[in-house]
Automatic annotation (TrEMBL):
Disulfide links within the chain: 197-207, 221-230
PROSITE patterns named in the record: CUB (PS01180), EGF_1 (PS00022), EGF_3 (PS50026)
Membrane-spanning parts: none
Disulfide bond in keyword set: yes
Record-linked SMART domains: CUB
Protein name: Attractin like 1
UniProt cross-references to Pfam families, sorted A to Z: CUB, EGF_Teneurin
SUPFAM superfamilies: Spermadhesin, CUB domain (SSF49854)
All residue ranges annotated as the EGF-like domain in the record: 193-231
Keywords on record: Disulfide bond, EGF-like domain, Kelch repeat, Repeat
CUB domain segment(s): 79-195
Domain of life of the source: Eukaryota
PANTHER family given in the database record: DISTRACTED, ISOFORM B, LEUCINE-ZIPPER-LIKE TRANSCRIPTIONAL REGULATOR 1
């Protein structure tokens, strides 16, 4: 209080306040409020705590992984739920590590009615006869069962053999996987595609759409290949060209041997006159 009974105005953080010099309690109160407000500002401005490990199918929030729907585990690394897939192509997996015990996961792939869906099993490893993958041609377990997988699927590396493919034609595919409470393995990685050609034509042709909207796509094979997936050669080993023969693509598309070709060659044919002469001579 000033001489004459007048008050002075003191400016604090939250605006003007009438205090007297002889009343320090008001100043103390505002100092406490100021300290608390500063603490709140510093707390919210500080960066969020990071996670010790990566969150595979989730987000790191304040040092912990918060999983997306259908995923569980401290790193959101295990499937355990239902998934719906509607993209033209994609993949489904149990996770980046061994699947967990008592797993139950279901995927519904949805396309247009009567569209063709292809499933390509690039990797599959489960406890044989105990942990299974069921594939249905429809949107429920009451649809036709088209395949059951259990055990190991190892992609072939020789010749034209390919990893297994499963086809559904209803416009849907339902996959259900479950494991027991004992042994577990690395699981699976399955690619899917809608209205695609079998095995991508094996790299020996191109995928061509049909003439009408209702027609399916098909493989248009290169000249030396045939089959639905262009995976069967017209001439094995190219007929041993050039030393033993050549592949004749003008007629039946078979091997024609040179004069030096042995009679017992397993995959050659001979011009009619040449073969008769060899048989007659006995050489």
């Amino acid at each position: 209080m000033e001489i004459g009974g007048r008050c002075k105005t003191r400016l604090f953080l939250f605006g003007p306040k009438l205090v007297s010099r002889s009343d320090p309690r008001g100043i103390h109160k505002y100092l406490v409020v100021y300290a608390l407000f500063s603490f709140v500002l510093l707390t919210h401005a500080s960066p969020a705590k990071s996670c010790d490990k990566s969150c595979n199918s989730g987000k790191c929030i304040n040092g912990s992984c918060v999983c997306e729907r259908g995923w569980v585990g401290d790193q959101c690394q295990h499937c355990q739920g239902r998934f719906k897939l509607t993209e033209p192509s994609g993949y489904l997996t149990d996770g980046p590590f061994n699947y967990k015990f008592k797993t139950k996961c279901t995927w519904l792939i949805e396309a247009n009615p009567n569209a063709v869906l292809r499933l390509r099993f690039n990797h599959f490893a489960t406890e044989c006869s105990w942990d299974h993958m069921y594939v249905y041609d429809g949107d429920s377990v009451y649809a036709p069962l088209v395949a059951v997988f259990s055990g190991l699927i190892v992609p072939e590396t020789r010749g034209n053999e390919t990893v297994p493919e499963v086809e559904t034609t209803s416009g849907y595919a339902l996959l259900h996987f479950f494991s027991d409470a004992a042994y577990n393995l690395t699981g699976f990685n399955i690619l899917y595609s809608i209205n695609s050609c079998p095995n991508n034509c094996s790299g020996h042709g191109k995928c061509t759409p049909g003439n009408s909207a209702a027609s399916r796509v098909y493989c248009e094979c290169d000249k030396y290949w045939k089959g639905e997936a262009c995976d069967i050669p017209y001439c094995r080993n190219n007929c041993g060209s050039p030393d033993h023969g050549y592949c004749d693509l003008t007629g039946e598309k078979l091997c024609v041997c040179n004069d030096s070709c042995p009679l017992t060659a397993p995959y050659y044919i001979f011009p009619a006159g040449r073969r008769q002469k060899l048989l007659h001579d006995g050489t």
